Amino acid sequence: MSGLSLRARHRGRGVDVDLDLPDGQVLAVLGPNGAGKSTLLALLAGLLRPDEGRVSLGGRVLTDTATGVFVAPHARGVGLLAQQALLFPHLSVAANVAYGPRRAGRRRGEALATARHWLDAVGAADLADRRPAQLSGGQAQRVALARALAAEPEVLLLDEPLSALDVTAAPQMRRLLRTILRGRTAVIVTHDLLDVLAVADTVAVVEHGRIVERGPVREVLAAPRSAFAARMAGINLVSGTCSEPGVIRTPWGAEVGGSGEVPPGPAVAVFAPRAVSVRLDPPPLARNVIRTAVAELEISGATVHVRGAESPDGQPGVCADLDAAAVTDLDLTPGQEIYFVVDEAQVRLRAALTRN
């Protein structure tokens, strides 16, 4: 099998992952802090040995605890771009980028030619003679990307590469990654939806050390089945149990109806904030009504996001998008009791994800 394959367990970090990535695809890994995203990258890069498992790339076995195989990080054909550039401070930019080819046995002139090629590719050719201390954050990250690519990795791993950049440098770097990663095999850990939309083909959501959701970017973000993916995509997700066709019942007794063929058992209702209206008095409806309190009001242009309080079983609060006039008419304030009414025609029901 070609491409990237990871099946590994690390008990100390509570991680048990199973992942396959075809050649030429970019996978975005999402999840809350401490979920195991960076551990996943470390297992791929050979910076961490699993207690049990197997890692292969392009048909080569990199890690196999059953047979004792463990290829050193520098020999894996894996490039890693971290949050910080981590350039060698005593070397010039050109020498930093040439380091990988030199380590692979290339002659100095050939390695420098490779460095110049990749510096030009990332728009940093004019920085070749500078030292890292003379670079801005965005410039240093471009150089770090060139250094990773100069080693000609079969797969590129990116651990939140834009998180340390300012609001000017981040969009430029994102556009660069979109170009550089096209057709390459790569895994990017990120907390930014823009990174996902710009560079990724597929998405994997990690929670509690497990991959709980996986699929094409459009599919996962349009109809997520995990709370984290739903919050990131700006979509409401309500969990419950399906006991009759077209309806789920939440642990606190609310009923939410919608479309979708869901078998009896754990299920989720997914709907956009614009599908939610707000009332101050109980509506004469039996379902698709959620009694809550205003947790926060957030203004985004002409839209006001009204987020309800966390549900009794700890689910994130539902969000409604209203215009400013509606919020003014309702005279909403944090802590105020309200009723969310969800348009049933805009609700999609899906079977809930189950952890292995």
What does this structure look like?
This protein has 356 residues and is an alpha+beta fold. Helices cover 24% and strands 33% of the residues. The strands form 4 sheets. A 6-stranded mixed β-sheet has the order 7-8-9-3-10-11, sandwiched between helices. The chain has a 5-stranded antiparallel β-sheet with strand order 2-1-4-5-6, with helices on one face. Strands 14-13-12-15-21 form a 5-stranded antiparallel β-sheet. Helix 2 (93-103) crosses helix 3 and helix 3 packs across helix 4 (137-150). The two termini are 24 Å apart. The mean pLDDT is 91.
Secondary structure elements and pairings:
Blueprint: E1 4-10, E2 15-21, E3 26-30, H1 37-45, E4 52-57, E5 60-64, E6 69-70, E7 78-81, H2 93-103, H3 108-121, H4 137-150, E8 155-159, H5 169-180, E9 186-189, H6 193-199, E10 202-207, E11 210-216, H7 217-222, H8 227-233, E12 236-244, E13 247-249, E14 255-257, E15 265-271, E16 276-279, E17 289-300, E18 303-308, E19 319-323, H9 324-330, E20 337-342, E21 348-351
Parallel strand pairs: 3-9, 3-10, 7-8, 8-9
Antiparallel strand pairs: 1-2, 1-4, 4-5, 5-6, 10-11, 12-13, 12-15, 13-14, 15-21, 16-20, 17-18, 17-20, 18-19
Helix pairs in contact: 2-3, 2-4, 3-4, 4-5, 5-6
